C-alpha cells in the first residue's frame, strides 16, 4: 500500500516534469541516468509553464501536498513570481467536488429532507474550494425567524482516507530518515510528522474548528485590528460548519487595497501585532494564515481591520516555551547574541557541553547582516539556510511543538513582505514583546496572580486553622517516627556487627575443624570445634538484622 502510494507520488511529479525545478548542476549523474531510464514517466505537459505543472501535480496528489504548496505561495523571496502566482491558486481555487454532493452531505448532517428547511437561497456552486473542504453561500433561517447571510463549509467526501494514506507514507519516510540520516536524531522527523498528523486530522473535524473560532472571537472581542466571524453552533456538525458571511478584500489583492486607499504600512504593522498578541497574550494562535484565509475590511482605509476565516489549525504554547521564545526574541532584537546562546542552552534546545562563545559567534555571523534592513532587502531563504547549518553544527534539536509557530511566522513575514516591503519587522515586533515581558515579571503580574487565585484562597481560608493544626500534628508524628526509625537503624547496625562477629568466628572454627580432622588421630578435638562452629552459625543467624520496615507498616 505504502510502496504503491510512493510510486504514485513519484510518477505524478515526473509526469508533470516537476523535476525540472532542480537545477541540472545539482543533479548527480546517477539521478540523470535514472530519469532517462524511466522512459514511461516522461513529462506529458511540456506545453505548460513550470509553475502550472507544479500546481497541477500538487492538486492531483491531494491535501497534504496542497498544504505544502499553500505555504510556499507566501514565500516570494524563495520562488520566482510566475510559480508563486500559480501556487496562490491552491489557497481557494482547488477544483471543487459537485455541489449536489455537498448539498446531500449537508442534508444528512443536519438530518433534514431538504436544505430548504434550514437555508434560503442555498447556492450549489461553491464560493471557494480548498484542499480539505469547500464553501457554499446561503441564507440561514434562524429559529426566531431572523435571516442571516452565511457560508457553509463542507468537508470533501472520502478525504480522510487519502490523508491517512499520505501520512502513513510520511511516517515511514520519517522513520528511515531518523534511522539513517546523520542529522536524523537532532531533526526529530518522527516527532515532527506526529505533530503534523495530529494537526491535519484535527482539521477534518469542523466541531473542533468551530470551537477554535469561538475561542479566537472571544480573545479579540471588540478588537479594532481583527474580526472573527460568528459561528452558528446549532447548525454545525463534524463535517459541516455554518458561519457568518463576511465581505472583504483578499489580503493578496494588494492592487485593489492600494486603489481603495488602504494604509498598507499600518495594515502590515497590525499583522505583526495580531500575530504576537495571539502567541504571547493568548497562547492560542491561528496557524494557517495563508492569503486565502485572511481578508481586509476596507470600509475605513485609514484604520483597516483584518478578517480571518478557516480555524482548523491553531497552535498553543506552554508557559515555559512562551517565556523562552519571548526572551529569545527580545535578546535577538537587542542583538544580545550571548543571551540568545545562553537561552538555547538553558532551555535544553542545545546541549550543555556546547561552547557558548562559539555558538554566540555563529549566531552573530548569521543574524547581524539582516538588521536595519527592510523586508525587501532580506533574503530569508539565505538566512534560513545559514541558520540550519548553524543548528546542525551545534547539535540544536528541532522542537516539534514549535513547528506550527515557525510555519505561522513564515506566513506572517510573507504577508508583510507582500503588503509593505519596507516594513521593519524587528522594530514593529519589539514593543509588543517588551510589554508582554514587563507584564510577566513586574508588579502587575503579582497583582494578576493574586486576583486570579483570590476565590480559591477565600474558599480555603476558613479551613486554614484546621489544616495548620493537622500539619503540626503530622510534623510531630513525623519527628517521632523519624526518631524511632533512627533507633531501629542503630539497633540493626549493632545486630549486624554482632552477627558478623559470630559468622567470622564460626567460619574460622569450621576451617579449624576440617584441619584437625585431617591432621589428628583423635577426632574429639575436631568434634568439639565443630560443635562450637555450629553454635556460632546459629548465633549469627539469630542475631542477623530484621527488616523493620514491614513491622512498622
TrEMBL record:
GO molecular function: ATP binding; protein kinase activity
EC number(s) from the headed UniProt entry: 2.7.-.-
Entry binding sites for ATP: 127-135, 153
Associated pathway: Cofactor biosynthesis; ubiquinone biosynthesis [regulation]
Family: Belongs to the ABC1 family. UbiB subfamily. Belongs to the protein kinase superfamily. ADCK protein kinase family.
Keyword Kinase listed: yes
Protein name: Probable protein kinase UbiB
Main subcellular location: membrane
Classification of source organism: Bacteria, Pseudomonadati, Pseudomonadota, Gammaproteobacteria, Alteromonadales
Keywords from the UniProt entry: ATP-binding, Cell inner membrane, Cell membrane, Kinase, Membrane, Nucleotide-binding, Transferase, Transmembrane, Transmembrane helix, Ubiquinone, Ubiquinone biosynthesis
ABC1 atypical kinase-like domain segment(s): 90-344
